[in-house]
Write a structure and sequence with these properties.
This protein has about 475 residues and is α+β, with helices and mostly antiparallel strands. The chain has helices at about 1-5, 15-25, 45-55, 85-135, 140-155, 165-170, 175-185, 185-190, 195-255, 290, 345-385, 405-415, 435-465, and strands at about 35-45, 70-80, 275-285, 305-315, 320-325, 325-330, 335-345. The strands form two sheets. It has a five-stranded antiparallel β-sheet with strand order 1-7-4-3-2. The two termini are about 55 Å apart.
């Protein structure tokens, strides 16, 4: 059984959102509390949408007076044979083409950043050898000097061809030349070595050349390291700017993209000129605990409870193209269905749903624009500055009351059985189970949301000339 559990597919952001909504719904299985359905051939979608939005936002008595109203869904599906599909498809293609051009530039900059990091890594290794030569540790200093001399023979002196130290030692029987070069520290050491004059002359010349190369190469290497590090900073800043610029195009292309409300959606016929639109507005109103019970005035549950209304508008329309001063626009008229749902959400639940919604909407966009940076972020921080975790904390000023902590703690324990609080000493009352208060606030928020739902449902019908009771 554990194996089966581990193999269960992780829930998508949409499924997680629906689960949160189901648990907070004021109705069974998150069914609509009220439903209005009618043909609105003489009325466009815009007046319906903005009437609901304004009524939720307007303060009492003209509206519900919600603290905040957000648009949580904005989707459409158009028949592929309609002019509406062609027009929006053309706009989406323009956004996609512009985004792809910028993505090509971003990929070029990313490759440049990666190459710079690799170069800086190599420079750092080389510079570490120069640093070890200046070390006070004799063994480390000697090892670094030998490593640098071998590097000079293998990469600089080797360019002489048969006249290089390696080739002279290998092919012309100057067997002592290589070891003598590694051993000699100065021209004075060369004079004191037990070698013939011919070898000494070659060794003296090469040692003099090496010592000059060592000083010059270190300066040039450090200079190039600083130049490439500055260039890395420039490229990283460019990458951030390009990433910020491309996101609006990717988001616009996604918004203009058509949704699929089901492979066999009967409301959409390929050759018809029709569109199905889904819009959802979510409004919230904070519940004051004192409205539930006066004793809850100072109750701290760590989050607020909100009376929430979700208004879902399902619109099946036949768009009519009209030419205006701004260009071609579409007037929508057709069948309207408005679903009213009541919820009781905490601030934490609303924040979690918002996070999941953002994750769902921008998952692809973030992956295209930010993954590359995240993968090399540690290297970038290393070369451009220390990460925040390595920065030293500023020393804190000593607390003059530090010595009284023990006394205050003992006094707190002494008064704890009496169950009252000394605010001046920042004492807290004994902890207790808050599930009862949470349940009461949750129920009150649901009842308030249901009342608001009915008010909007009733006034909407009356204001639109429908039968109401």
């Amino acid at each position: 059984m554990p194996e089966l559990a581990s193999q269960e597919k992780e829930k998508s952001p949409s499924e997680k959102i629906e689960e949160i909504k189901k648990n907070a719904s004021a109705t069974k299985n998150n069914n609509p509390l009220y439903v209005i359905q009618y043909d609105s051939l003489a009325e466009g979608l815009e007046p319906i949408y903005f009437w609901i939005l304004d009524f939720m936002q307007d303060q009492k008595p003209n509206g519900l007076g919600m603290d905040e109203v957000i648009k949580s869904k904005d989707e459409y599906e158009a028949a592929v044979g309609s002019g509406f599909f062609s027009d929006l498809g053309t706009k989406a293609t323009r956004m996609q083409e512009q985004a792809m051009k910028m993505m090509g530039t971003i990929n070029t900059v990313v490759r440049s950043v990666i190459n710079l990091i690799y170069d800086l890594r190599e420079f750092e290794i080389r510079l570490g050898t120069y640093d070890d030569i200046k070390s006070e540790n004799k063994d480390k200093k000697e090892s670094a000097e030998i490593a640098l001399r071998v590097l000079w023979m293998d990469q600089v002196d080797i360019k002489r061809g048969r006249g290089s130290i390696n080739m002279l030692a290998r092919e012309l029987q100057f067997v002592t030349l290589r070891d003598a070069f590694i051993y000699a520290k100065s021209e004075e050491d060369v004079k004191n070595l037990d070698l013939n004059d011919r070898v000494k002359r070659i060794l003296q010349s090469r040692l003099n050349e090496y010592l000059k190369w060592k000083d010059y190469s270190e300066k040039e290497l450090r200079k190039r390291f600083n130049i490439e590090r500055a260039y890395l900073k420039s490229q990283v800043n460019s990458l951030k700017y390009y990433t910020a610029w491309v996101k609006p195009y990717l988001i616009a292309a996604k918004k203009l993209g058509m949704n699929n409300f089901g492979p066999n959606n009967p409301n959409i016929v390929n050759l018809f000129n029709n569109v199905e639109i889904h819009l959802t507005l979510m409004g919230k109103k904070k519940i004051d605990p004192r409205q539930v019970n006066e004793d809850y005035a100072n109750l701290d549950l760590g989050t607020n409870y909100n009376s929430c209304i979700e208004t879902e508008i399902l619109f099946r329309t036949v768009p009519k193209a009209t030419q205006s001063q701004q260009g071609l626009i579409y007037l929508h008229s057709g069948k309207t269905q408005v679903n009213f749902r009541a919820y009781s959400f905490t601030d934490k639940e609303l924040a979690e749903m918002d996070k999941l919604k953002t994750e769902e909407d921008l998952e692809l966009i973030e992956g295209m624009t930010e993954v590359s940076l995240k993968e090399i972020q540690e290297d970038i921080e290393y070369f451009l500055g220390k990460p925040e975790s390595e920065k030293k904390e500023e020393p804190k000023a000593p607390n003059p009351f530090e010595g009284f902590k023990g006394l205050a703690k003992g006094f707190k324990e002494a008064v704890k059985p009496f169950g009252y609080v000394y605010d001046t000493l920042n004492f807290k009352s004994p902890s207790f189970d808050k599930s009862f208060q949470e349940k009461k606030l949750r129920e009150a928020a649901k009842e308030d949301a249901k009342a608001k739902c009915y008010k909007m449902y009733d006034i909407y019908k009356k204001s639109h000339g429908m039968f109401a009771w």
